[in-house]
Amino acid sequence: MRACLVFLTILTLSACGSVQTDAELESYVSAFELEAKRHGVPVKGSPMVFVKKLSTAGICHHGSHIEIAKDWWDTLTEYQREALTFHEQAHCALGLKGHTSKQNTLRSKAIPSSHFYKVNRGSLLVELFDTVQN
Ligand SMILES: [Zn+2]
């Protein structure tokens, strides 16, 4: 009985505590924080966790943490993974509301192609952090 109460207490505390970033996603949180600082917006990245499935590739969950759909993640290139996580961080950590209808930006719903992101990464990041600041 006592062991059961201790177990329940630990379970309750962990459920109420802050969300921990999954190990595979830690480098993406750090990369976002580094780029944010470089672009004059020093913010703490929101925790990111994998979930099995979502109706989209990722979601900012009530502004507190980011959920990434593992089934989508497994189909993305490294560049697209960064684009996705930076987009969700913009919602969660920078307060980006809604999406632009413009294509090939980190503020639109669609993840840019790997090649496009690779070639235009610098200007895409400037645009992302600039528009959030203004
Ligand atoms: Zn979005």
How would you sum up this structure, described in words?
With 134 residues, the protein is mainly alpha-helical. The protein has one domain (16-133): Zincin-like (2-Layer Sandwich). Helices cover 50% and strands 10% of the residues. The chain contains 5 helices and 3 strands; from the N terminus they run H-H-E-E-E-H-H-H. The protein has helices spanning 2-16, 26-38, 70-73, 78-92, 114-133, and strands at 48-51, 58-61, 65-69. It has a 3-stranded mixed beta sheet. Helix 2 (26-38) crosses helix 4 and helix 4 runs parallel beside helix 5. It binds zinc ion. Residues 87, 91, 99, 109 line the site of zinc ion. Zinc ion is lined by residues 87, 91, 99, 109.
CATH topology descriptor: Zincin-like
* pLDDT averaged over residues: 88
- Percent helix, as a range, is 40-55%
* Number of structurally distinct domains: 1
The secondary-structure element order is HHEEEHHH
By helix and strand content, what is the structural category?
A: mainly alpha
CATH class: Alpha Beta
Question: Strand share of the residues?
Answer: 5-15%
Summarize the main sheet. Answer: 3 strands, mixed
Order of strands across the main sheet? 1-3-2
Shape by Cα distribution: globular
N→C terminal distance:
57 Å
The assigned CATH architecture is: 2-Layer Sandwich
